[in-house]
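Quick one - inputs below.
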Amino acid sequence: MNTLNKIKRTGPVLFSEYEKGSAVKKVLEMEREDILFEIKDSGLKGRGGAGFPVSTKWMITAAANADKKFIVCNADEGEPGTFKDRVLLLEYPELVFEGMIIAGYTIGAKEGIVYLRAEYSYMLEFLENFLEEMRKQNLLGKNICGKGFDFDIFIRLGSGAYVCGEETALIESLEGHRGEPRNRPPFPVNTGYLGFPTAVNNVETLASVPNIINKGGEWYHKHGTDKSTGSKLFSVSGDCKYPGVYELPWGTTLNEIINITGAEDTKAIQVGGASGICLPATEFGRKLSYEDISTGGSIMIFNKSRNMLEVLKNFMEFFVEESCGQCTPCRIGNVKLLEGVEMIEKNEYTIEYIEKLKELGRTMQVASKCGLGQSSPNPFISILENFKDEIFNNKPVLN
Amino acid sequence: MEKELRSPVSQRPLIVKDGKSKTGIGATVSIELNGEKMQVQLGKTILEICKENKIHIPTLCYHEDLCIAGNCRMCLVEVEGMRTLQASCAFPVTSPVKIKTFSDKVRKARKHIVDLMLSEHYGECYSCVRNNNCELQTLAKEYGVDSYEFGHICEPRFEIDSSSHAVVRDMDKCILCRRCVRTCIDLQEVGVLEAINRGYDTKISTFMDKPLADVICINCGQCINRCPTGALHANDPSDEIWKAIEDPKKHVVLQTAPSPRAAIGEEFGLPAGISMTGQLNTAIKRMGFDRVFDTNFTADLTIMEEGTELLSRLRKAIVDKDSSVMLPQFTSCSPGWVKFIEHFYPEYLDYLSTAKSPQQMFGSVIKTFYAKEEGIDPKDIVTVALMPCAAKKFECNRPEMDSSGFKDVDYGLTTREMAKMIREAGLRLPELPKTNFDEPFGDASGAGLIFGATGGVMEAALRTVYELVTGRPVPFKNLNIDVCRGMKGIKEASVKLENCKEEFGFLEGVELKFIVAHGTANAKHVMEMLIKGELAGYHFVEIMACPGGCIGGGGQPIPTSELIRKLRVKAIYEEEASMPVRKSHENPRIKYIYEKFLTDGPGGKLSHKLLHTKYLKRGKYIN
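Output:
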């Protein structure tokens, strides 16, 4: 539909041939336990970044005793530098929606909700039409494919807060409250949307499911590494010739990324978006995988012309803007870290104070209420440590 | 019927009510707390477990009256095997865990959090109303803060909102624990305060950021009682009161409600539950007030007026079959409740008793009857009401409260503010000798005293109404109507009227049904029952805006908790039990005022002018 989607490399799973409706038809003939085993065999883990095993999440939700259950598709793709969910939703909505139907069938949900980020509202009409078409084909609605399973999908728009990508904040937002993370436990799999057991899965996770069903968990497990199975979509941006979306097996090294994308003079790669970590050239041999550098898929490449302090400032400004303001470490901590960056910029700092801020960052990593505040100090710590020569050299230090 | 404390799903701790009923899970779980092995009840939070084991965990956003928030992050502890520290208030123990409550990582994190809060907390402790009773200050001390590690804000960011007669908001001191938000939305179900904006710009705000006086705040002041810092406090009139005391032309009269005496000792370091009636009288007189009267006197008067009103409503409904008579009759002595119903249920104002609150009755009696008896020009009289209440400040400023021809009550003073004035006067309250209230209102009944506790008005009213109707005392042991007492959110009971006096023959055999509710969340529940028609057949409803009744009022000493409120209530009932007169209608001063002044009796013309009022249909939308 959109030629700007820049799919640069297709792979065996997501950007492969798929017959619409085939996995749903197959799954409705299967026992729920067998589906769970198939997913377990595949080793599929959450693609949002945290990497929680999908089979476990579904198993707990399926086992929960409740009148109602929900499957929520997290399409609040807000991490700076990620755009793969957008591409999936526009190019392969059938994979995402069918993944939701399969999930719903497995856990016993009759309703699926897509939480679509506000910035993607332009695709609402397209997706609604697509769902309507699926209803006509009896892939959604009452008695799907004549197999006695009722399920429908509704799309809800976010309002532009980054934190709503965090699953409990997303649920709060769905319920009409301020988008703020909840205490965990209880986890959404037990107490989620409207208090009912809810499985929240990333777009890409759900989109991986139909092919696993069709081709089998064992087939899926052959791709990637032992602990990071299958393939992954990477959104590559920054200083390279061919930015875009790449489907690559887990275990791909950063050097390989540089080669594939035609990047030159690369100084740093920010893996995992603003909340990820920034790696220097010495680390480019490392592998993208849950066991090495885990990521939701954002790869930002910076070449030698970039000022790393500016890069850092940009990230910290983002977190100051996007902190929900609920917990102390994140609300105030990010401001202090940004102030520290500005001090360095103006050359009005002491090394002691910057070290103190790094300590504060380490506290934020363990003390913040949700993933936002726990990961926002990552760029601060990694950039100041990995690029200390560039940032602190040639500057007289006040003491 | 009990209304449960509403708590959002997100803030509801995981509670396993009966461990044994869960297959495969025992009722207890073995954990290790700071290296010590122990068995604990499944589902208890780490904070609760630590409390039971006398381990102090610092908290800020936690308050035992409120649902869990887990946002200040002060109560973090280390749970082995978890990457991040866990908020102990929000972490229910459901598996065998090893917990460390003061490891290096924990102490460092807590210190960082205190430092961060202080960096944004504008102002200095010595110029703060909460100096020496501030939870942030205490934490700064506990964690050895000796400098501002991450700077300290030097300029105020917000304007102080003192638009409200009751509550002043100084958002520069706010640390965003959101206890006020949870108090307002969840505990009281009023919903005036909520967090707005995001990140560093987050602040507690009213609807459209309007001044507090221009939103549907009921002035209950419960938010003040639960604020850990000085961000919320009452609008303090003590400077003007000192000025009036100093002015030789002014005759300054203080009336004191029953609840301050049961709680003011806490301000002087005494444990909760010690009554200071006599000492307080001495302090008030030594401070230079010309007279000190007991509001219990007008509480008795309220019972006479409200009770008579109830009987007349019953007569109209039963004898005259007048369908315009509204039953059940709701009490009207809690100004927070009155403003609540004016905003939320303006169509139901006719259910309210028209009787003024004891505070306002006293104001008009002082500036009329008392002024005449003593030969003092009422314009020279300044009436001060010592109240456990923030809403009383608003009430005395209601424009219609001028039936004496003057502002009936000039100032509403909270228990906390009185304690401050006593300290300013250099008096050590607990050490003072005891003295009595002044004449001519020296005596009050025990019925007036128990107005301070939830159910007290009902109990007092029943003692009088039952006896007026039947000529016999209420059929309860020692006059104690236990069904009215206790902290249950909504209490209901009935008493049968038998062998009535001739003039009340129409009530023969009637089961007098009544309801007692405290806290506006419970009041809302009762109102919803009324709207659904579930209160048909009920006759009298007592509602107090504050949890626990007046003893838990927004002007009472901080902190508050259910235990503290129970202890204050206990002090009141104990004092009451030993009083010589325990029925409002038997108070000799009440008989005297109806003989000498309000000669056409309760509900008569003069009573209606001075002791009754009308209400305003405020609604929820204010321009």
